[in-house]
Amino acid sequence: MSNVSALLLRDSLIRNDQICPQRTAVIDGNVTISYRELLGRVDSVCAALWSLGVRPGDRVGILLENSVEYIELLLAMAHMRSIAVPLNTRLTASELQFILNDAGAGVLITSPALKPLAEETWAQVGSIRHGLVTGPHPADGRFASYQAARSTAAPFDPGMLPDWGDDATVILLYTSGTTGLPKGCMTTDRSWLGNNTNMAMAFAISATDRYLALLPFFHVAGIGTLLAHLHAGGTVVPLAKYSPAGVAQMIAHARITLAFLVPPMIQQLLSLEHRAQYDFTSLRAVIGGVGFEPPWVSEQVEEELQAKFFGIYGQSEAGNIVTAATRDDIAQRASTYGYELPGFRVRIVDDADNPVPVGVAGELTLRGPSLMKGYWNREEATQEALRGDWLHTGDIFLRQPDGMLEMIDRKKYLIKTGGENVYPAEVERILSAHPAVADVSVIGIAHPVWGEAVKACVVLRPGHTPSRTEVAAWCRQRLAGYKIPRYIEWVPEIPRNHSGKPLKNLLQARPTDSSQDVSSLH
Question: pLDDT, tens digit, for every residue of 39-57?
Fold first, then answer.
């Protein structure tokens, strides 16, 4: 019997083809594509993949920049019930090889610019049978022409597909792997449609929106915000390469209404030279990371760009965004992560999975339709993450009496110094409020007496030259003695992954010397 209650990603595309076929779905450079044309392109991609032997459940690696080809591939594979494996374009060949071998991908699709990396990767992945390269290029070595495959394949017959409902895995989204090896989060039509509803309710996404798709489509927020706008019948404007001037120019030229920017992109846009020459009047909302940005960022976005600011928290396992905070929320409590989106139920629990009282810290656990099914080929890790039918995020939160959520830190970042526990995020919030600090990450380093010592890696704002002792004194007025950094290092930037999370392992590998020592103030 058919699953009549299931709604698929394909259904939202068909709906838009029926009610607004000529509305613009995608603007990619000089190419403008309507919803009718997008549906046709998706069908031709289905035909091309089917001709290569791709069947329901098969995995296809995508190593592309943000583009209309990426969008149509994600939608086509969801329609075919095959599984898209978006690949981080910043990874090395060996890192990509691990993911493709883990997924057992049979096809690899890339662009001319990324083809050398794709070729190096393919050499060590035995499961790959076919490769396609986008762009107006003929077949080249192992890679056949993507455009030719689309134009020459026999029409695709969706009647050949099994009825798998909305619980089939359609996108295998690998975690960033900042600690240990990445794991593949199995996401479904149900996951993404749950995300679409959440984002529409939280950020008022509608058919009138134009989204600047700068966040890479290999990231949960990049895919999630893309699909939310297509579901609503809005317009997506993919941008393959980031620069502050490029973002400003695209906002003005394409009349962008919503942009999602990760640290330090917002600060770079705000400080862009000659910013006044760009027209930002179409921009109604900017989504950024909460907890990663100094409090003044939300104020400047709303006052200087005249756009509403939302600071969010999310993760791949949760299926994108979990909480959102407005400027007013942040002004009320700088440490807030806002409130959970409507599609989630939240519990904060202790180590025995018992709920803790309001105001007490514990692990954030979630229920909701956008959550992953589990980890690909990782049954033990899946059972641990989803034990008791709740997703365990690994993040320490507390609920304030007014209902706001506050993130204390990641469990794995906890610093143990002299028998005391220090959560780096608490120290980072204090340092971020210093007028000279542009960015900061706090880490634990080995110490012969205390086990670990607190170290702050600080990026200074242009024109500011405080001493280390001045910054340590700022902390001393606001933190218990054991939480104050014993070492402060000035760094040119905080290394971050594609989602804006600091790569603390790289910071911990930096040398610490006596010039950074401010412990005499403690």
Answer: 999 999 999 999 999 999 9
- The closest alpha carbon to 456, from 441, 467, 445, belongs to 441
Virtual torsion, Cα 203, 409, 184, 46, nearest 10 deg:
10
> Residue 438 sits in a domain of what CATH number?
3.30.300.30
**C-alpha 278: how far from its chain's center?**
27
Q: Check whether residue 402 and residue 490 sit in a common domain.
A: no
Region label for 102, one of left (φ > 0), alpha (ψ between -120 and 50) or beta (otherwise): alpha
What are the pLDDT digits (tens) for 442-466?
Answer: 999 988 877 789 999 999 999 999 9
| CA-only gyration radius of the chain, Å | 24
Of 450, 428, 445, the C-alpha closest to 437 is 428
End-to-end, the C-alpha distance of the chain in Å comes to 70
Give the global pTM.
Answer: 0.83
HEC profile of 430-453 = HHHCCCCEEEEEEEEEEECCCEEE
Per DSSP, the three-state class of 443 is: strand
488 and 393 within one domain? no
- Angle, CA of 140, 146 and 147, to the nearest 5°: 110
**Residue-range definition of the domain harbouring residue 40:** 36-154
